[in-house]
Amino acid sequence: MLLNYTKMEEKTKAAAYVRMSTEHQKYSPENQMAAIRDYADKHGYEIIQIYSDEGKSGLNIAGRASLQRMIDDVQNKNVKYKAILVLDVTRWGRFQDADESAYYEYICKRSGVRVQYCAEQFENDDSPISTIVKGVKRTMAAEYSRELSGKVFTGQSRLITLGYRQGGPAGYGLRRMLIDEHGNHKGILARGEHKSIATDRVILVPGSEEEQENVRWMYRAFVCEGRNEGWIADELNRRGVRTDLNKEWTKATVREVLSNEKYIGNNIFNRISFKLKIKRVRNPEDMWIRKDQAFQGIVDPSLFFMAKGIFAARCRKLSDEEMLQKLKELQNKKGYLSAIVIDEAEDMPSSAAYSGRFGGLVRAYRLIGFDPGRDFRYVEINRYLRELHQENIQDTIQKLMDCGAEVKLNESGNLLNVNDMFSASLVICRCNSLNNGKYRWKVRFDTILNPDVTIAVRMKADNAGVLDYYLLPSLDFRLPNIKLDEHNAGFIDSYRFENMDYLYEMAKCISIREVKQ
Q: From CA 144, how far away is CA 239, in angstroms rounded?
């Protein structure tokens, strides 16, 4: 018998990139991968690596750890694939600047790795037609996000005028109440908890009688007794009263209570805009969306408006010279300046006022001859990391709940209880540069909360993005802290992960065992 052997053509090695925000099910990672694998089979590709950003916006590269890692891998020639397969142009990103989308693709092409869009009707072959169509698609993707942002804002504004709360913590002395579509109360939402039914809504209701009385006392002390915010904060701390975040009171937290209209029952929205994640803008009062008497207030409106008048009198229109003179005097008194120092100082315009008047705090500093240097950047990075910590906690809670896990957040907002089976604490690990050019990360374990698992989020060298994650069990780490190098002993790096999928799988397994019981 004569046998004919046909030599199989060697397939081109490729990576797959998938991204899902909170859009339709058709964009789920599973559906994307099914379409990408089908394309790979038909076009002679072998997928050897998968990069996945789940629950991430496509407006920019920030927060998309897998895309950042993929770009780094390609630039550093740390890849064995020759192509990157993406479902379509929108999954690559809905960048508001189409040139940014093209730039990341160009980085890959320059390193010998081509980007192929599997569900598009054009071949990404650098032909004039594909270049034109691709440019149009990128612009359409950006425009879609702009239109969606407008629709979301309109919907949120309508709900505000109907008296419903749109995100954010309730604040001291108040609670978030979940109500159904008929307005019936369903229960108080704890910090970190969210509504799970689309037709449910959230309103604000008064908190405990003790907290309500403390809020009223603050207003009386400020308006009737002439006490300033610093004195009020000191008195509350002396009494052992804690904020809603279980922290000590400061001048800034007292001012928040004394100036927020929610304490007289008004619902306010759009005080600050951060549309399309481009620039945070503090809007003038005539742009605010409001619903007066939406909730049950806990402060007499006359007291509130008297407090508002005191703030307005303080913030009379100072000249540039007067503002700079006050800033110089504060520097001479404290020896240094920061946004926190300015906001905590008595009889000073806020740091936001300086930033708005002089085009940024740094420029105001320079006008009085103060050089913030590295310390200022350090403060700004710390502020970013604090915000990132809260974002990561909320993101982790949501993904655990998506896996079917029951998650509880303790009063301090720092300890997660998963399925009543294990506890977890999340810490952000700042990257520190050593004199020898190497990097080091310090992981501080919470010895008070004593979690079963510490989630150490290791930052990149510029502290602007997440590098990777360490899931560290308390049974193996008894010290108050450890230091991580770029490459660690096998024992420690065995707990290193590119993402937190392993944690979510743990939650899934526990949930299944509970069902069997």
A: 53
DSSP, res 180? -
- Strand 12-20 relative to strand 45-54, pairing: parallel
Give yes or no for a contact between 440 and 423, defined as CB atoms under 8 angstroms apart.
Answer: no
Positive or negative torsion for Cα 231, 235, 241, 247 = positive
Which amino acid, one-letter code, is at 194?
H
Residues 276/149, Cβ–Cβ less than 8 Å: yes
CB-facing half-sphere around the CA of 195: CA atoms within 13 A: 21
Reported as a single tens digit per residue, the pLDDT across 344-358 is 777 788 787 787 788
Predicted confidence (pLDDT) per residue in 357-391, tens digit: 887 788 888 899 887 764 455 555 666 677 778 88
Q: Tell me which residue of 510, 445, 502 sits closest to 471, measured CA to CA.
A: 502
Out of 19-28, 213-222, 316-325, 432-441, least confident range: 19-28
Alpha carbons 397 and 426: distance in angstroms, whole number: 11
Nearest CA to 419 among 453, 455, 468, 457? 453
What are the tens digits of pLDDT across the range 101-122? 888 888 899 889 999 999 888 8
Provide the token pair at 498.
């590119």
At 340 the three-state DSSP class reads helix
Q: Which pLDDT band holds residue 237 (cuts at 50, 70, 90)?
A: very high
Q: Specify the pairing of strand 281-282 against strand 272-273.
A: antiparallel
Name the band, by pLDDT with cuts 50, 70 and 90, for residue 14. very high
Nearest Cα to Cα of residue 67 among 93, 35, 89, 32? 93
Amino acid at 439: Y
DSSP string, 17-41: EEEE-S--GGGSHHHHHHHHHHHHH
d(CA 229, CA 150): 38
Q: Which two tokens stand for residue 247?
A: 């922290």
Contacts 24+ apart (CB under 8 A), 282-286: 282/352, 282/356
- Using CB atoms within 10 Å of the CB of residue 420, give its burial: 0 to 12 exposed, 13 to 18 middle, 19+ buried: exposed
Question: Average model confidence (pLDDT) for the chain?
Answer: 81
CA separation for the pair 110, 230 (Å, rounded)? 58
